[in-house]
Task: inverse folding
C-alpha cells in the first residue's frame, strides 16, 4: 500500500532545509587587551570557545609596526582553521588596518571598499557564503566616530552598491559590525527600518558590549533580513573576554 501522506520526491525538493548558524561580531582592538598585552592567540581562544560559524571582526592590524608586523586576520583564521576575507579601511605604506569575515563554510568575496569618511577612514567587506541550498550575503563594517560620517556610511551600505545591489535581491542578508551607535541614534534607526536587530527578536534582553570591563553601551550589532530567524543572543562576558579586547563579543544564533 502506498502511504498517501508521504511527500513525493519533487515535493520534498521544494521544501528547503532549515540551517542553524552562530554569528559573531567582535571588535578585537588590534588584539591589544585591557591589560595592554598584545595577544592574537588569546582573541582566537575567546572565539574558539563560542564555536561560531560566521565571524565579523573589526579593528585588525596587518603588517603594522605597532603590533609586531603580523597579519592578525591570517593568524586568527589559521588558529580557528577558517578562511578569511579582509578589507583594509586604512593603508599607510605597507601597513593596513580593517575588518574581516571568517568562516569554514564555502565563501567568496564580493566586495571590499572604503566608505565616505571625514574622520578616520572606514570601510566594509561583503562575502557570499553557501549554507546548504542558500546563498547568504554577509556584510561586516566598523562605522566612524562622527555622527555625520556614520549616517553617510550606513547610507552607502544600505544603498545600491552594497545591500541594495541586484546581487542581494531576494537573498538572505546579515549585517555585522561595530556601529559606534546606540539604538537611539539615527544610524541605528536607519538600519532598523530595513532589517531586524537580532537580539530584539531572540527573546533575550539586549546587553551592552562596550567597554568590556564595565559595559555601558550597546554599539556592536547583528542585523538580519526577514528570511532569517534569530533564536538566541549572548554578550560573552568571561574573565578572558574582558581582558582580550575593549569590546565584548556579541554571539547571535539564527535559523536560515
Result:
Amino acid at each position: 500500500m502506498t502511504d498517501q501522506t508521504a511527500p513525493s520526491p519533487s515535493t520534498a525538493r521544494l521544501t528547503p532545509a532549515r540551517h542553524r548558524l552562530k554569528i559573531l561580531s567582535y571588535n578585537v582592538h588590534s588584539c591589544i587587551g585591557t591589560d595592554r598585552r598584545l595577544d592574537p592567540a588569546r582573541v582566537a581562544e575567546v572565539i574558539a570557545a563560542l564555536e561560531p560559524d560566521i565571524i565579523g571582526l573589526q579593528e585588525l592590524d596587518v603588517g603594522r609596526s605597532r603590533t609586531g608586523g603580523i597579519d592578525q586576520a591570517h593568524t586568527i583564521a589559521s588558529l580557528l582553521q577558517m578562511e578569511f576575507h579582509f578589507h583594509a579601511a586604512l593603508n599607510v605604506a605597507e601597513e593596513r588596518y580593517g575588518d574581516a569575515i571568517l568562516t569554514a563554510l564555502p565563501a567568496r568575496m564580493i566586495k571590499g571598499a572604503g566608505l565616505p569618511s571625514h574622520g578616520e577612514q572606514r570601510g566594509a567587506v561583503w562575502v557570499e557564503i553557501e549554507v546548504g541550498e542558500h546563498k547568504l550575503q554577509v556584510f561586516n563594517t566598523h562605522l566612524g566616530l562622527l555622527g555625520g560620517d556614520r549616517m553617510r556610511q550606513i547610507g552607502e551600505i544600505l544603498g545600491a552598491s552594497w545591500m541594495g545591489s541586484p546581487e542581494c535581491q531576494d537573498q538572505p542578508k546579515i549585517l555585522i559590525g561595530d556601529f559606534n551607535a546606540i539604538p537611539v541614534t539615527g544610524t541605528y534607526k536607519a538600519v532598523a527600518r530595513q532589517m531586524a536587530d537580532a537580539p530584539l527578536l531572540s527573546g533575550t534582553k539586549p546587553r551592552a558590549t562596550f567597554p568590556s570591563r564595565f559595559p555601558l553601551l550597546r554599539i556592536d550589532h547583528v542585523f538580519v533580513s526577514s528570511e532569517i530567524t534569530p533564536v538566541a543572543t549572548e554578550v560573552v562576558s568571561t574573565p578572558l573576554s574582558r581582558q582580550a579586547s575593549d569590546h565584548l563579543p556579541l554571539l547571535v544564533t539564527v535559523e536560515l
